[in-house]
Amino acid sequence: MESNNSVSRNSRASRQSLAEVLQAHQEQHEQELKSKLKKAQTLSSKKIRQQQIQTLKEQSLREILGFFTNQIDVKRFLKNKKKLLSSDDTEEAEKYQDEFLNPNEFQEMKHIYGDCNIGDVVIVFPNPDDEEAQVGEVTFMDAEKVFDKFITVITDEVSKSYLKKERDSFLLSYLTLGDYVKPEKKTKKQDEKKQKIENAQNNQNQIPNKDNDKDKDKDKDKEAQQNNNHIEQQQQAQSNINNNKPIDIEEVKLLQNLKDQPSKNNLQQSQQNSENDKIEQETSYQKYLKFMKLYSEQLKFEEEQYQLQRNESMQILGERFSEITFSQQFYRKWQKQKKQEDLIIDPLKELLKIDLNNIKQFKNISKQLSKGGYLVKKMNDEVDYDWICQNTPPKDFLTLVRITAINKLCRNAFVHCRQFVSTTGKHIFVVVKGHQQVITRQAQKMKITKQIEMGFADLFSLEPVDEQFRPLRLKSYVRIIDDDLRNLLAQEEQEQNKEPEFDYLNCQDVENYCLKLYIKVRQWKGKDLKYNVIKKQRDVDKILKEVVTDLNIDQSHEKVELIDDIQITDEEWQVYYLYLESILCFGKKIQWAKEQKMKEVIDNIAFLYKLVFLKALGDANQIWYAENQNFWREFNGDKRIIFNLWGRLNITPVAPYTEYFKSTGSAGSSLWRKYEINENKHRSEFINMEKIKITNSIILKHINILKMLQMQYIFAYFPIHDLHQLKGQGELKKQFFEPLKKNGFIIDKETSEGEKYLRDLFKELADEAESTDFDSESLEKESQFNYRVPWDIPIDSIRDYFGEKIALYFNFLNYYAKQLWYMAIISIVTQGIMSSSSLELRQTAIIGFSIVIIIWSTFFMEFWKREQVYFSVRFGQQNFEADEAERPAFEGDFIRSVLNDDLNEEFYSPFKRKMKQLLALSISAIIIGCVIACVIGINLLKNKMIEEKFDQTLSNTLPSILQAISINVFNVIYNTVGQSFNVLENHKILSTYENSLVAKFTIFRFVNNFIQFFITSFLSNYFVQLKLCQVNLQITNDCFQILSNQMTTIFLTNIISLQIPKLVAPLIKAFILKLITKKDEKLVEHPFNKIDEEIERQLKLEPYQTNEEVDGSVNDYMELVIQFSYLSLFGLAFPACYILAFVQNIVKLQVDKYNFFNYSRRPFPQGAATIGNWLIIFEMISFLAIFTNAGLIVFTSEIIKENQVQVFSTLLIVFLTLKYIIRFLVPDEPAEALLLNKRHEFVVEKAVKGFQTESNARYLMQNVNRRIGGPKQIISSEEED
To answer: Where would I find the Anoctamin transmembrane domain in this sequence (predicted)?
Structure first.
């Protein structure tokens, strides 16, 4: 009995202790939960914000990653872009869809091609899926380098944090590419041997593996049985407690020690945990790879379901089956099902989990460079094929680079990009076009210089003035009225109210009306004339009053009385009356359109008034000249009787330039000059050249194009020719856009009444407009050869198409040829005297012509300085500074910058560069030694031919021809050597690279071309045995004749060897390319086919380049430098060389012009104010000409036989004095340019006032060009006051 009671007491005690343990454990657990909940509730708001920021960062990173992996929601992006650019939307766009474009892409394109411009810039990428594409591997380190150095440009346009996101997205995208498989090159014997070894190993390991498997299975079964028994014991003990059943002490001990003494089940759990720890040690990239295996299985299952249901649907619906409808329904249903079952697998989410900081995990990773299958070549037959875009995530590195570059331009720069594959399949073209809003915004950021509309800025400078520059409308003749005239005018006004006024609005031919009126006006004299002029002036004043209000013109300076007012003739007042009649007629037409609220007329009102003033003045003078013409006026070009301010100054009117800003206010739309930009007569503030310049700037701020070109990630990069502006092929260009109109890409808007009225006004006013106001003629037609003035070329039109740098080159070539024509006449006379006159007259001619050469070369340089200053004022280039761009090929060591503390600045030792320059100098010296040896050998050949009594013409001509050939051969050799050493010197800045190249070329070509001349002219007496000046057996010492023969041959050879290849080589190259190129003849029909063919044709044109880093202007200027050297240094020996040089320059001008228009890709427009270092080179040659001409007179011509040193010194003093007197008398800055600049300064201050926002109110004077050729002077508002 006692024993039973003791057992029951023990069992109750054990149950009680167990219950207490469990209760304590539960209370502890609840307390932990409460503490965790409390901590969660007391989370600081700062941490919540950090979490929100982190979420936004992840979303942004995810979006960028989606772009780079071609998995982005395009619709949402384009809608955001549309909001930013404020584009209009139409319902019609949503209806359009075909196999090429979705509705959003169509909507994007429709807003782009409305200006009928096929594109601004083209980026040509190699097609990585082409059969001949380069195959290779790309490591993770390579991918980092490509993004950091080639794709990314660090500017203020994009924040560093955003660049970091782009970098991470690019590297994550790289990890999704296809793995690179190294090709194994093994022989059959090696393969058979390897197979035998593998078979033997498999046979040896087959039996032991089976035994091991059996032992492992037995161990697993035992462990499982023991675990099951142990679990059953635990469950039985727990159930006994819960059911108040008696349990023994062992069961109690078992449950009490659950936490401290793990069972075999816990041991197994710990083993699993250790295995999980091993899994956690796996890299994040390895986890991603495992995930992608699961993801690929899901995609495979999804595709199987798609095909299964598609087949069932096709059987049920038959002909009513729609692939698009079925696809939309299937994927909508599939996504819904996956959401319900929680089976959605997001690959981008898993990709973002990869730790990019752990670079070691990517050490052995290499991805394929090309052949990713993004594009697939589908053969339709043996010849015809099509490229099919799979539109999948990129699987090769080149495709990833291309997609990244395009998305950076679209996302960050907001430019439009369109891709197409070339007909050969070797290239992928990306056509880049800037939106009008983007161009405007970027122009403000770049602070580009824009021209203000002349009619807005300085309209009243176009009205007639007297010799004192005072307007005729303010003269006392018009403003001071006596009592008789006042009464007569009052009476006339009363009668005029009763009589109908002349119908100016319906006057279609104002010029013809004024011509008939002039017959009547010529009869007015004295008071009759004054009365009619005053009456007409009063009517015009009403028009001018509205003009002043419309354009916000300040006329406060006119409220003064004229002092010392001079009188003008009645004939001038009669012509002025015709001017007033024209102003009144056109002014009433414009005011009527304004009353009708014609927006198109109001937006161009300043431009219209400028045309009216020019038209009225031009027609009045033309009518006068038609009645008063004679031979003397025709000869002098005196065809005007009344002049505006610019006519009195004999200056072409030029509107001022200033930094561009978005104008505001009622007249703000008329502030900036507008241009005709296409064949449809559309007008814009930005000509196509400026759009290309701005678009190029946008691209360079987001992609390092030059680096990518160097590393061949990009094949070509060039702007697109406009066929209408260049060649006048407007009808051909319209054919490009007809398919776009048919397919809804361009919507033809009905011409409004205001537009029709405006164009009618333009037709009436166009004949007196400036050449660049209307795009009436193509550049090719304007540049046709002028037999009367063969050097003439339209600089303004060339500038508007090619930019200032090319225009300045043609301006220099034009100026050079113009300066040669009068020297050609003088040289012909001098050559005749030197060839047939007496010895004394010949000697006089030599001395006289040497003085002429010194004067000509000095005037040439001084007047060119003035010409380029005037050029810079005309085109707003006074303060132009070339960008210090870094060379893409520069490679250096990364160090800390001493200037700005940049820790990763590339640096290259100047000492190493100097050593390489010394090496280049030594190699150049060796080549020059070869040149000298060649010169000596040719002279020995000449002497041999003379001794052998060859024909005199042959013995003198053949050596000269050989000399010309050797010059060209060594030039070609040194071109390659010089460029190689220039690259080896590793210059960091592109301008220093170009300067170094120019210096090398100039020095070598100077030596190569003139070593023979210097030896013959000045060293023949020291090398008597060479007989350098022997002409024949009778004439053994006539250096002038030898020099003359050599120069004749060289000039004629240069005309043939330098100009003809420029015309023939492109034709031969195009013919060969046509023969060897295989292209797809049967293109897929699409609206952009004709546009794409034209763009691909332009790729085949020759780039205007000296090499990959320097444009073609280096070679062009070099030709002119060498020619100028021949003329200035040794022209005295052969005066007729000037006529040959004139012919050569005319030919060069026409050839260069033809090449630019037909054979060359359009070069990127660049600004320029001067010809740069070439001006220094020309001046050095002009200075050296003093010494060579003095030396030729003293030491070569045999005129001076005694006291040669003293005479040489005297001639040097005379020539130097003459040169510097001319330089003193001819200022570098012409008065016209200074006057224009001062006028512009005054005009801009008045014109810009009222069109700036409050934040930019201090702008007025600080950005005006105040000094020609110098930097901007910043003037504060306090200083102005």
So the answer is: 798-1239
Q: What's the CA gap between 817 and 589, in Å, rounded?
A: 47
* Span of 88-97, 632-641, 1175-1184, 1187-1196 with lowest mean pLDDT: 88-97
State residue 608's pLDDT score: 92
Closest CA to 481 of 435, 520, 527: 527
Kind and range of the H or E run holding 54: helix 45-68
Token pair recorded at residue 1091: 């546009």
Q: How confident is the model at residue 184 (pLDDT cuts 50, 70, 90)?
A: low
User: What is the H or E stretch that residue 796 is in?
Assistant: helix 795-802
pLDDT at 223 over 90: no
CA dist list (Å): 579 to 280, 518, 982, 1092: 92, 11, 63, 51
Q: Which helix (H) or strand (E) holds 418?
A: strand 416-421
Rounded distance between C-alpha atoms, residue 832 and residue 827, angstroms: 8
Give the H or E element holding residue 907.
strand 905-907
pLDDT, tens only, 549-560: 888 888 888 888
747 φ, ψ to 5°? Answer: -105, 120
> How crowded is residue 1015: how many other Cβ atoms within 10 Å of its Cβ?
18
Alpha helices (runs of H) in 281-368, residue ranges in sequence order: 284-317, 323-341, 347-351
Side chain identity, residue 19 = A
Instruction: Classify 838 in phi/psi space as left (phi over 0), alpha (psi -120 to 50) or beta.
Output: beta
- The confidence score (pLDDT) of residue 93 equals 38
Q: What is the helix (H) or strand (E) element at residue 828, kind and residue range?
A: helix 804-836
Q: What single-letter DSSP state applies at residue 384? A: -
How many C-beta atoms surround the C-beta of residue 761 within 10 A? 19
105: nearest Cα among 114, 113, 93, 115: 93
> Which residue, 472, 567, 579, 488, is CA-closest to 527?
488
Which class for 1017: exposed (0-12), middle (13-18), buried (19 or more C-beta within 10 A)? buried
Separation between Cα atoms, residue 1214 and residue 251, nearest integer Å: 129
Question: Among residues 401, 1108, 408, which one has the least CA distance to residue 701?
Answer: 408
One-letter amino acid identity for 589? K
Burial of 772 (0-12, 13-18, 19+ CB in 10 A): middle
Contact 367, 182 (CB under 8 A): no
Closest CA to 170 of 64, 73, 285: 64
User: Are 1249 and 1226 in contact, with CB atoms under 8 Å apart?
Assistant: no
Residue with tokens 């900036």: 672
Between helices 249-256 and 2-41, what is the axis angle to 10°? 10
Sign (positive or negative) of CA dihedral 380, 382, 384, 388? positive
Q: Report yes or no: 1190 and 1132 within 8 Å, Cβ to Cβ.
A: no
Res 71: pLDDT: 65
Q: What is the pLDDT of residues 944-984, one digit of tens each?
A: 888 888 887 888 888 888 888 999 899 999 988 988 888 88
The rounded distance, in Å, linking the Cα atoms of 293 and 557 is: 84
The whole-number pLDDT of residue 1264 equals: 38
CA distances to 862, 880, 998, 1272 from 1172, in Å: 15, 12, 11, 19
**Is residue 773 within 8 Å of residue 800, measured between CB atoms?**
no
| DSSP three-state, residue 656 | coil
Do the beta carbons of residue 653 and residue 461 sit within 8 Å?
Answer: yes
The tokens 């005694």 sit on which residue? 1202
Q: At what angle do helices 605-628 and 510-521 cross, to 10 degrees?
A: 50
Q: Distance (Å, rounded) from C-alpha 898 to C-alpha 921? A: 31
- Per-range mean pLDDT, top range of 193-202, 488-497, 1185-1194: 1185-1194
In this structure, the number of other CB atoms found within 10 A of the CB of residue 213 comes to 10
Non-local (6+) Cβ contacts of 682 within 8 A are 115, 116, 676
Amino acid, res. 1150? Q
